Amino acid sequence: MTSRAPIVVIEDDEDDQFFIQEGIKRLDIRNPLVFFSNGVEAMANLVAAQESPLVILCDVNMPSMNGIELRQLIDLNEYLKMKCIPFVFLTTAADQGLVNMAYHMTIQGYFKKERTIGGLTEQMRSILDYWDKCLHPNSHYD
Predict the structure, then answer these.
(1) How many domains, in total, are found in the chain?
(2) What is the per-residue pLDDT across 37-84, written as a single tens digit (0 to 9) for each?
(3) Is the dihedral of CA 138, 22, 92, 14 positive or negative?
(4) Residue 53 belongs to some domain of the structure
(5) Residue 83 and residue 16: Cα distance in Å, rounded?
(6) pTM of this prediction?
């Protein structure tokens, strides 16, 4: 990866956190992984952090504040909105209503988590390769 920006993962399930971390390790991606268990913790960190993440990977169903509520708050926060952080849902919750609701917001992807470590690793490769190469307002144009 050319970017060394952190990858923010908002996921309350410890098993899923482990599998995501293992997938990133298998891909030999050296970007720091920053995990949060809910949207409240993530929102506080995103507002306080100086560096913009490469991408936010967010579950939909979580305690305290779910992924939909988090995305809505990010869209309402002018500081975070200006950072233009790519936001991708990576979740087991996938039905037409949720997907439609998510795409009515400013998300950049909605993926149903693969059930195997190999499948999840390939999913992570696709998502992270895309955002590493994609030009957006946080890109470095060297």
Answers:
(1) 1
(2) 999 999 999 999 988 999 999 999 999 999 999 999 999 999 998 899
(3) negative
(4) yes
(5) 27
(6) 0.93
Structure tokens at 38: 């809910």
Length of the chain: 142
Dihedral pair phi/psi, residue 20, rounded to 5°: -65, -45
Please identify which residue in the block is written with the tokens 């169903």: 61
Whether residue 98 is contained in a domain is answered as yes
Residue 97: both structure tokens together = 């209503």
Q: Are 55 and 49 in contact (CB under 8 A)?
A: no
CATH number at residue 117: 3.40.50.2300
Rounded CA Rg of the chain: 14
Cα separation of 2 and 25, whole Å?
A: 16
Domain residue limits at 28 = 7-133
Residues 88 and 104: their CA atoms lie apart, in Å, by 13
Amino acid at site 115: R
